[in-house]
Amino acid sequence: MSKKILLDQINVPGIRTYEVYRKEGGYASVEKAIKAMTPDEVVEEVKKSGLRGRGGAGFPAGMKWSFIDKKSGKPRHLVCNADESEPGTFKDRYLMEFLPHLLIEGMITSSFALGANLSYIYIRGEYMWVYKILERAIAEAKAAGWLGKNILGSGYDLELHVHCGAGAYICGEETALIESLEGKRGNPRIKPPFPAVSGLWANPTVVNNVETIASVPWIVNNSGDDYAKIGVGRSTGTKLISASGHVKNPGVYEIELGLTVDEFMNSDEYLGGMYSDRPLKALIPGGSSVPILPADLIYKTTNGEDRLMTYESLSDGGFATGSMLGSGGFIVYDDTACIVRNTWNFSRFYHHESCGQCTPCREGTGWLEKVLWRIENGQGREEDIDLLWSIQSKIEGNTICPLGDAASWPVAAAIRHFREEFEYHIRFPEKIKNRNHFVAEPFSQVKHLVTKQTV
Amino acid sequence: MKVTIDGQEIEVEAGTTILQAARKLGGESVPPAMCYYSKLKGSGGKCRCCLVEVAKGSDADPRPMPKLMASCVTGCMDGMEINSKNSDRVREARESVTEFLLINHPLDCPVCDQAGECDLQNLSFEHGKSKTRFIEEKRTFEPEDIGPNIQLHMNRCILCQRCVQVADQLTDNRVHGVMDRGDHANISTCISKAIDNEFSGNMIDVCPVGALTDKTFRFKSRVWFDKPYNAHRECKTPGCCGKTTIWMFGEEIQRVTGRKDEYHEVEEFICNSCRFDHKQPSDWVIEGPRKFEKDSVINQNNYTQKLETVTINTEEGILKGREGDRKKISMSDIGYDEKIDGEKLNSDK
C-alpha cells in the first residue's frame, strides 16, 4: 500500500472542521515554522524535498520559491492556483472539498517562507461550493488566530483571501491568473518578467498549485529529506491522480511516485482493471493536454522497462513513445472509444478556451477543431490528416502561453499513434455515421479495411 | 552591448529589444510587426509575426533559446546572436502566422480602404502563399458604426489590440475593447457606446489592416490616387502636435492623417479636430510633398520624382475594340434601351 501524506486523514469524520483538524494535529507545521524556523529554512526544506509543482509542469517548487525577488523591498504574495480546469483532472477539488484546512495550513506555512503578508487562493468559478467551504475554513482559522495580525505572537501578519474566477481555462496559466486576480481580462502576460520578479500588482509573486501547497505541511513537519525518500529519482513524494474513463474504480488516488502503471491500472487497490473487461486501447496519463499513449506503449518504456508513474518514465523518449505525468488526470479508453471523436472533443475545448490574444492559438485552434469535426462527421478529405499535422506543428511553441501546446499535442499524438483510425473515418464515411460506431464494431475489427491500402 | 543579427553586428543600449536593434540596423533583417507599435506602451508579443531565432543567448550564457522569441518583447543581451531572415525556422513561422491571419481575413483588398497601406497585405506579399488551405467558412461580423467618425469592419480585424491601447493611453474613459475569446474575440464598444473622444481618430492610424476606417474618407478614393503632403496648423487642442499628412485629390483634401515613419507608425498623435474637421486647403500650411518608401504602393503614383517618358509598344490587335468601349464608358451617350453590345434591348437578334 502506498504511503499517504495528503489524504491520510481523509476518512476522519468531521475533518473538514477546524476543531477536528486541529485535534488530529493540524496546523503543527505553522507552529513549527513560525516558532522554530526562519523563512529561509522552510524554503531550504522544500528544496531538499525535491517537491515538483503538481499543476502539470513539474518545476521544482523550492527553486521557484528561491527565485522570488527579496531585494526589491516590495510586498510579496503567494497565490494558490486552484483554477483546476484541465479536462480529466479533478484532484484539487477533492483535496479542497474534504481537507480545506490542509490547504490553508500549507498557505500559511508557505506564505511565511516567502515573506508574504497577503495571499490568495484563486479558485475556478465552477467550484462555487468549494469556494464556500474554503471561505468558512478561512474564517475558522482566522478566529483561532492562525491568520491576521501577529500570528502566534511572532509579529508575522497574513491575510488570506479566496477569489472566485469566472470559469476560464486560461486563468489556470499563472500570468493570466494574476491578470484575472487584478480584475482584468484573463490574458497571459508576456514572460519575462516572471511573476517571481513582477507578478500580482507588479510585486514578486509565487503561484503554486493546490496539491503543491498542501504538501508543504508534511515536509515542514517531517523534513525535506524524509519527503525525498518517498518516490523515485527526481520524482519525489506522492501524487494525487484523478482517474476516469473505462476503468472499474474511477476516482482520486494518492500514489507514491514510482508505482508501476500496470499496478495502478490493474490492482484492486487502485483502478481495478478495465470496466467490462474490454481490451485497453489508449491512455492519457496527465490530463487532456498531454499526448495519448496507445496500448502497446502504456506498460513498457522503449527500453523494455516497466513504465512508472513518474515524470521521467511517462515522458520516456519524448512524445514519439512517451507522454507526461502532467496534472495527473488519468483517462483510460477501451477499444470502443473513437480516438478521432475524442481528439475533436479536446480540440473543441481548446478552441473554446483560447484567449484569442496571439495569432497561432486564436486561429489555429479553431481551424484544428473545424477539420477534426469534418473528419468525425464523414466529410474528411484525404489531405486533411496532413493538414492537421501541419496546423498543430505551426501552433506548437509559437504561442504566448502553453495553451497552444496543450491544443497541439493531443492532435499530434492522436495522428502519430492512431493515423489509421483517421484514414478509416475519411475512407468510410458511411460507416462512421452512427455516433457509437466503434461500440458494436471496435476499430480492431475493421482495421484491415485501411491497412490493405493506405490513403 | 553588442548583438549580432543575421551576421551583422550592432551596438545597442541596455533595454533595447531585438526588434528595435533590427530596426536600427535596417534592411531585410527587420522582422515584420503587426501588433507592436513603438509609440504605445505594452504593445507587442501578440501577433507572433516578429518571431526570431536566438542562436546564442549572450556571452554569459551562450545557450540558444529553444523556442522562437517574439523580437518586439525580447530584450537584447550582450553577445546575443539572432537569426531573422537567415533562419528557415523563422521563415516558416512567419509563413505560418501569415496563413493563420489570412484564414479569417477576407481578401477584399479591391474594396478595402486600407489597400495600399495595409501591413497584412505587405506581410502576405513577403510571406504569404498563393493558395489557401482553409476551406471552412470564415467568421463574419456586421460592420459597426462605433462613433460619428469611425466604422469598424470586424471581419478584417486581426486582434492586434493597438486600438485598445490607443484608447487606454490617449483617451479618457475607454469605451471599447476585446469581447469574447478565441477566434470569437472581437473588438466592440460596451455596450453600443459611441467613441467620440478627441483622440479617438488615432485608432484608425494605428490599425494595421482595414478594420477601423475613417468615415469621412471611406470609398472616396484609392490612396494611390491621392497626393500626400506634409502640412501643419496651429492646433489648440492640448496634446495635439498639429503636424499631419494631408491627402489631396486635385484641390480637395480627401483625408488627414498623422505623419507615419518607415514602419508605418505615426510620429506624433493628432486630434480629431485636425483629422476630421479641417478639410480646406486654407486650414493648413502645406510644407511640401511627402516621400514614401520605394516599394510602397503609394509610391507608384510618385510625383516627387521626374517621370521618364514611357512608350508602350503594342500590337494593334490588342487595342482592337477599345474605341467602341471608350464611347460606351460615357453612359450619357447610350440610350436606355440600348444593350452594352450595341444591340437594341428589344432587338429580335
Task: Please explain how this structure is put together.
- The complex is a heterodimer of chains A (455) and B (349).
- With 455 residues, chain A is an alpha/beta fold.
- Chain A contains 18 helices and twelve strands.
- In chain A, strands 3-4-2-1-5 form a five-stranded mixed beta sheet, with helices on both faces.
- In chain A, helix 13 runs antiparallel to helix 16.
- The longest helix of chain A is centred in the last third of the chain and has 25 residues.
- The radius of gyration of chain A is 23 Å and the shape is globular.
- The N and C termini of chain A lie far apart (49 Å).
- In chain B, strand 6 and strand 7 form a beta hairpin.
- The mean pLDDT of chain B is 87.
- Chain B starts with a strand and ends in a 20-residue tail after the last helix.
- In chain B, strands 2-1-5-3-4 form a five-stranded mixed beta sheet, with helices on both faces. A four-stranded antiparallel beta sheet of chain B has the order 13-12-11-14. In chain B, strands 6-7-10 form a three-stranded antiparallel beta sheet, with no helix packed on it.
- By secondary structure, chain B is an alpha+beta fold.
- The chains are: A alpha/beta (455), B alpha+beta (349).
- At the A-B interface, helix 13, helix 14 and helix 15 of A face helix 2 of B.
